[in-house]
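I hope you will forgive my troubling you with a question about protein structure. The matter concerns a single protein, recorded as an amino acid sequence and a row of backbone structure tokens. Please examine both parts with care and let me know of anything in them that strikes you as inconsistent. Thank you for your consideration; the sequence and its tokens are set out here:
***
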Amino acid sequence: MILSIAFTCLWAACTGLIQVGPYRYHWPVAWGLICIGVPLLGWVTFQNGPVIGLLALLGGVSVLRLPVRSLMQPAQGRG
């Protein structure tokens, strides 16, 4: 298994563990996961190509859908 995919799986496992924790920790940890996930996504795309990178992006957005939804609300005029 390529190292970037292994780290991506570890990142996804960490997001699953955070979701079972108290709600007050969700937002700070979500921002930390986003800051780690963006370079990780670039690394996955660089090593495995754009198709796997897009799949990793979709996986990350599905896991972190609450921060993505709140960031998209001002753009849609509901903010």
